[in-house]
Amino acid sequence: xxxxxxxxxxxxxxxxxxxxxxxxxxxxxxxxxxxxxxxxxxxxxxxxxxxxxxxxxxxxxxxxxxxxxxxxxxxxxxxxxxxxxxxxxxxxxxxxxxxxxxxxxxxxxxxxxxxxxxxxxxxxxxxxxxxxxxxxxxxxxxxxxxxxxxxxxxxxxxxxxxxxxxxxxxxxxxxxxxxxxxxxxxxxxxxxxxxxxxxxxxxxxxxxxxxxxxxxxxxxxxxxxxxxxxxxxxxxx
Length: 237
Hints:
By secondary structure, the chain is of the alpha/beta class.
């Protein structure tokens, strides 16, 4: 049996159902390539009480974990929601093809936690991701999604690539917005939602440039037209 288990947003966020499943598992892997964890592996190990093995992208995409699940109960732990990344869907499909049972155990994710901003969830448009730019690789298509969302008065959630520092993300955001002719007024920064480090900020771009320390993981929201209740709650931040 293969278990794909969501960890929620903090070290104690795993569900009781997830903990029960881990008792049966002979090997437990931690997917470590899609998010900057807000806690250490040691803290998670203390909660789970069992050995945890690292699982990078190459390991997960090689589907070795599915082969192991033919003989053993295996768990893959995923931060937040277990099926956000497409590679996890591929694991399920591969397991089905070879006749391996697969159980998905859900938990909270950033998609739940952003409601704390006061923005109405049903007013969000397409979710997009901001990649870390390299010297000769500066993709800005994420801003095209923001543009589409703004055209229908929808808010935009931008997930930030693992390892990308906030000041670099802010620079990318500003350059991409100018290229796509988007005027950025006040934006929202969500830091470590669901953890003891959770903070929400609502400021303009120039104010954010003065920030010296932003903890990971964080995400950015570009709000569209605000309902008066949304505006009232945001102003408190």
